[in-house]
Amino acid sequence: MSWFSDLLGPFEGFAVTLRQIGKGRRVTRKYPEEKRQKPERFHGRHVLNRYDNGMEKCIGCELCAGVCPAECIYVRGADNPPDDPVSPGERFGFVYEINMLRCIFCAMCVEACPTQAITMTHLFEFSVTDRDDAIYTKDELLVEPDGTPNHPQPDNPLIDLGELREGDGWLRATSPAGRREYEGVVAWTPSARTGTPAAELGQSAERDEDAEDSDG
Ligand code: SF4
Ligand code: SF4
Questions:
Q1: Are 78 and 60 in contact (CB under 8 A)?
Q2: What DSSP assignment string belongs to 112-136?
Q3: 152 near 140, Cβ under 8 Å?
Q4: What is the pLDDT of residue 86?
């Protein structure tokens, strides 16, 4: 009787469509005027952060480049000038580039960074018409000393840098070291004026119960 169910198949599909007509629940949005709220752990474009005193957090260690599975980060470290250091410590990130065409937004660079210099944001609108523009340089990744984010297309109406300014310039893919006992603990120091990150939520059952309670 498979020929009979094959015959019915399209009509079952139409029935689903007809059941939805008139329900009035609109699932589409008028993007870009209307934007969907992104999930808390959304992996968007990266930023390079500074300390509150304006110093760069990147120490040029290249751990992010080493861990990147797509090999899309290029870092070169240099010795800090003793009379005008760029970062605390001996070295700083002299060259920093991410090829966004290769990036798979896995956040392993964020996890690997020992100084919380590289973080990801909720910003995802960074389409380009020239492949070279997809390589974000340090000038575009590094926030200004006052925390103002940069972008290679500042005049692009789709680019909303306000999303970076509103405190979501932080991302942690998992709880620290993946351990449940760290859930609820704010693990990271505040970034350069992109706000204090929320406590780690983790992925345990307790976390889910807490989340349900807080949702009311
Ligand atoms: S998010 Fe993943 S793929 Fe992208 S730069 Fe970081 S480590 Fe590489
Ligand atoms: S961003 Fe972090 S991991 Fe990458 S070079 Fe700078 S300090 Fe090292």
A1: yes
A2: H-TTS-EEE-S------SSGGGGEE
A3: yes
A4: 94
The encoded tokens of residue 111 equal 């996890």
Neighbours of 48 (CB within 10 A): 23
- Interatomic CA distance for residues 129 and 120, integer angstroms: 23
3-state secondary structure of 98: strand
DSSP reduced 3-state for 77: strand
Prediction pTM value: 0.70
Q: Which atom of ligand 2 is nearest to the CA of 57?
A: 7
Q: Which residue segments constitute the domains of the chain, with CATH numbers given?
A: 46-214 (3.30.70.3270)
CA–centroid distance, 57 to ligand 2, in Å, is 8
- What's the CA gap between 189 and 51, in Å, rounded? 9
Q: Which of 43, 58, 68 has the most ligand 1 atoms within 8 A of CB, as the residue to mutate?
A: 68
* Per-residue pLDDT reduced to its tens digit, 186-199: 655 544 444 555 66
Tokens encoding 91: 């070295």
* C-alpha 177 chain-centroid distance: 19
Question: Residues 58-102: pLDDT tens digits?
Answer: 999 999 999 999 999 999 999 999 999 999 889 999 999 999 999
Which of 37, 50, 43, 44 is closest to 194 using CA atoms?
Answer: 50
137 vs 125: which has the higher pLDDT: 137
